[in-house]
Amino acid sequence: MKTILKITLFFVCASSLLSAQQEKGIIGYNNWLNNWTDFSPSQKDYGEPTQILSGDITEDTKLTKNNVYLLLGDVYVVNNANLIIEPGTVILGDFKTKGSLIISKGSKIIAEGTQTDPIIFTSSRSAKKAGDWGGLFVLGNAPTNMFGNAASLEFGLQPTSFQTISYGGDDVDSNSGVLRYVRIEFAGKKTKNFGNFNGLTLAGVGHETVLENVMVSYCEGNAVAVLGGKPFMMKMVSFRANQNDYVFNYGAQADILNSLAVRSPYVSSPYGSRCLVVKSYNENESLNSTKAETIVNAENLTLINVSDNLKSDIEVGLVKEAIFIDKNTSFAIDRSVISGFYPAVYLDETIKINNENLEKIQFTSTYFNNCKGNIFVKNYSNNDDLENWYGSRVFNNVYSRGPDSETFIDAHSLKRPDYRLRINKIIASNDNDDD
User: Is the bond into 343 cis (omega within 30 degrees of 0)?
Assistant: First the structure.
């Protein structure tokens, strides 16, 4: 009986310790990054392409693992066609023609990889670099807050029909397909007049679209851009993007859960280098006040800036905020980790700090680690009231200054990093001192 009781107590204690570890940041009994991710993909050689994809794909098409495909220029899936991609398939984006794949509204991409056999979109070059090719666009029929029922992509795309690059509509639950166990590497090619491509653009994507276990790495533009729609994203990874990791705009109603953004102070762009950007429209546009503002719900995120010398990198201006929240938006983050930023969060300077706006911007049960300042209003010198508000015990936020080696299980491994929190390393505190 004693033996049974001891065994029971052991598992109860082990379970409680695991719960303590899993409470904040990315969660999982095992490291869900294993097997399908690649944090050092630059030297991978997939051989010469055996099939070329170009122009319009107008009927259901299947890409198979036994071929290597080359995206030559802008490739469009149109006419309500389904593009089905087998696990383990490799698709190369052509460097010279900024190869890109656009899933037009009404069509679907069914890219279901597996943990041991992911689907890979990567550069056609042998020595791969950020910005080698365009990116992946998925367009849907869910609402945006822009004027009219449809918007169109820019980026200098040259379709045969305007409808091919239009997105948005009235179907919140529209289904643009499946992206599961997919890697997108070295995308974000720069255009002459439209800036950089995003690694993955989700434009008007509806709630029924499956977006799980998607990694965007070494993108020269934004890793993931959500333009309107109502996507549900889980186990997303952005690694070393030159620009922002996750951008939400144009009335997106987005959920992002159990996801990761890993920044480096040595890989950044003057056009933006934040983990999350939440906006409702761009500065040169007018908001349609009759439509919904952008609303983002984030749970169990880990946002980490991996630095060799964080203090020095902050002093020379290499480190920026993790999250930027613009006016006319709503944002809630819970049970998350923000580590190594200056500051952790900026609110746009036009946001008035009053009850109405504070109800729309929520930080709860979140672990702020090694941040020089936590939640600030941009260009405002005195943020004490704001810091004290979110530092109140009612929000259950935690503040610490632990090094990565003590905070995360293994944040510096090149092959198999583990960004889950270490057990029992969180110590509750209301100390918001920035020194």
Answer: yes
